[in-house]
Fold this protein.
Amino acid sequence: MVNKLWRVVVGSDDAGFEYKERLKSDLESDSRVAEVIDVGVHADGHTHYPHIAVAAARLIRDGRADRGILICGTGLGMAISANKVAGVRAVTAHDGYSVERSVLSNNAQVLCMGQRVAGIELVRHLVEGWLDLEFDESSRSAAKVEAINAYDQDRHITVGSSESKGAK
């Protein structure tokens, strides 16, 4: 169980607007959430999802948010776009096991979902559980996450090298 208060950035394109608004409301009333930052779209907005995803990811990269929830039609475009920001790990997940492993195995900060893929009650349930998850820096997965971070920083590592196996 996580004891920290999360700063959560939320965003959507117009295909995910209804879910974003519902999740935003849930988060604002959740005792585990200190702040909710909405990067759009708004009720009359039509911003393309890459712009929303990158804006959210930059807030995480810059330390102004801890986690992000991004909603579009499928969640796929949001994840692809958010992952363009170095240091941010975004996943698309629509089941409990994948949501759990996204944090515990991959230290993903951004959860992307699709309004056209999963029902709102499932999405709300997944977000509820996601807020209780926190990556363990001493876990067996830490070396794998460090390898991802090394690629983000464009450190040249070779598959099979001691660095790629987790040695420093």
Remarks:
- The radius of gyration is 16 Å.
- Helices lie at 17-28, 49-61, 76-82, 96-104, 120-130, 142-152.
